[in-house]
Design a protein that fits this description.
Length: 273
C-alpha cells in the first residue's frame, strides 16, 4: 500500500521508518516505496531494511514486501497473520480466502481453535512460519468462485470464506480440520452461533461435489444441529440405490449404510457438544 506523497514532508531517517509508517496508517510497503520515503537508492534502502528487520521493527512476509511492526508485537518480530495476509497474497499474485478452522473461528466457532492460519489459494503456495505466526496453505480450484466476505483487520481488510463456504469446506476436507469428530463439533457450533442460512448454503453447494454436501447433511443430522436438513435433501434430489459415499473418504469401504444421505458410515464420530 503506497504512502501518499503529500504525507512525506521531509525525508524520514531509517531508524524512524517503522514508526513513520504506523503513524501514517500505511504499515505495508515495497522496497521502491521505502527508497522514496528515505530519499535513498534501492541498495541503501535494502541495507536499511536488513537492519530494521534484525531489530524487529519490520518484517518481510515475502520478498519485496515489508510490514512495520507495532511496539506491542516487537517481541514477536511479526504481526498477527490477518494483518498481512491480504497484501502478501496480492504480492504473490494469488486469489485466496481464510478458510477451514480459521474461518470457523472468525465466524464464532472457537471451540477448537486452529494453531495456524489456514488459507485457501488458487495456486500452490508453500507453508510459511514467522516465529509464532504460522501459515498453512491449501490449493483449491473453487477459490475465486465460492462465496466469501471481506473483514477488517487492524491494517486493512482480508477475505474469509462465508459461513456457507466454511461448512462445505469442512465437510469436504475434514482431515485438514482435525478429523470428522472435530468437524462435527465445529459445524454444530457454527450453526448454533451463526444461524446458517439455507439459501446461502445451497447457493454455495453448487460449487462442491455432491458427496461433500451429503456428508455435511449427515453431520448436521448426527449432531442434531439446528438446521433444516430437509432443504438439502430436496436440493440433492432422490438418493436411491446403495449408499456409495464414504463418511471418511480415506477410511475403509465397509460400514453401516445411512440411506437418507447415501452415506457409508465407516468411521466413529464423537462430537463434543
Amino acid at each position: 500500500m503506497a504512502v501518499p506523497e503529500k504525507n512525506i514532508e521531509k525525508l524520514v531517517k531509517p531508524r524512524a521508518l517503522s514508526d513513520y509508517l504506523l503513524s501514517q496508517g500505511h504499515p505495508v510497503v515495497t522496497l521502491a516505496e521505502v527508497a522514496k520515503i528515505l530519499g535513498s537508492s534501492p541498495k541503501l534502502a535494502a541495507d536499511a531494511l536488513v537492519r530494521l528487520r534484525r531489530s524487529a521493527y519490520l518484517f518481510s512476509p515475502t520478498p519485496g514486501l515489508y510490514v512495520a511492526v507495532p511496539p506491542q508485537f516487537r517481541t514477536w518480530k511479526v504481526v498477527p497473520a490477518l494483518d498481512f495476509i491480504d497484501p502478501m497474497m496480492k504480492a504473490l499474485g494469488r486469489e485466496y480466502y481464510v478458510g477451514l478452522l480459521s474461518a470457523a473461528e472468525i465466524h464464532g466457532a472457537a471451540h477448537q481453535r486452529a494453531q495456524v492460519l489456514q488459507v485457501m489459494v488458487n495456486h500452490l503456495v508453500h507453508d510459511r512460519d514467522f516465529g509464532r505466526v504460522k501459515l498453512r496453505f491449501f490449493s483449491g480450484r473453487r477459490v475465486g468462485v465460492v462465496p466469501t466476505e471481506l473483514r477488517n483487520s487492524s491494517t486493512g481488510t482480508y477475505r474469509v470464506s462465508s459461513p456457507a463456504t466454511t461448512v462445505l469446506d469442512l465437510a469436504l476436507r475434514p482431515r485438514d480440520a482435525g478429523g470428522l469428530s472435530n468437524v462435527a463439533t465445529v459445524l454444530h457450533e457454527l450453526v448454533e452461533d451463526d444461524g446458517l442460512d439455507a439459501r446461502e448454503l445451497l447457493n454455495a453447494a453448487q460449487y462442491y461435489p455432491r458427496s461433500a454436501v451429503r456428508r455435511l447433511g449427515w453431520l448436521f443430522d448426527f449432531t442434531l444441529a439446528p438446521f433444516d436438513t430437509d432443504s438439502i435433501i430436496s436440493w440433492l434430489g432422490p438418493i436411491t440405490g446403495r449408499a456409495d459415499v464414504l463418511l471418511d473418504a480415506a477410511g475403509p469401504r465397509r460400514g453401516r449404510s445411512d440411506h437418507r444421505w447415501g452415506i457409508v458410515v465407516n468411521a466413529e464420530v464423537e462430537a463434543d457438544l
